[in-house]
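Below is a filled-in request sheet from our internal design queue. Each sheet records the structural input a requester submitted and the sequence that came back. We keep these sheets so that new team members can see what a complete request looks like end to end.

REQUESTER: design group, bay 2
PRIORITY: normal
MODE: inverse folding
CHAIN LENGTH: 99
BACKBONE (tokenized):
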């Protein structure tokens, strides 16, 4: 699960390596990861350059807010329950700020 933020609201610092590939949308996506342990730090895409996604597991907050939307549901595992979200997208959301 990832949380999406406007980049101008996030401070990104420290060493990282980048893996870049074409996303399912046809846009380039870049995954930034720790050069020491390989943990995923965040990702960004040419689809909406103003946003970045951060793995929710990176936050040590047990009260992290519940998700509000789910995307790429057409490829999710059948056992994954996303009934708690308000907006559902079979594929990616339209570019723009998160709902």
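RETURNED SEQUENCE:
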């Amino acid at each position: 699960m990832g949380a999406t933020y406007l980049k101008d609201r996030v401070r990104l610092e420290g060493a990282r390596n980048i893996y870049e590939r074409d996303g399912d949308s046809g846009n380039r996506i870049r995954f930034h990861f720790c050069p020491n342990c390989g943990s995923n730090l965040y990702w960004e895409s040419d689809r909406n350059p103003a946003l970045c996604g951060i793995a929710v597991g990176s936050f040590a907050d047990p009260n992290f807010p519940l998700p509000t939307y789910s995307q790429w549901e057409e490829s999710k595992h059948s056992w994954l329950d996303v009934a708690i979200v308000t907006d559902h997208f079979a594929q990616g959301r339209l570019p723009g700020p998160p709902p």
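SHEET NOTES:
- The mean pLDDT is 79.
- The CA atoms of residues 72 and 91 lie 4 Å apart.
FILED BY: M.R.
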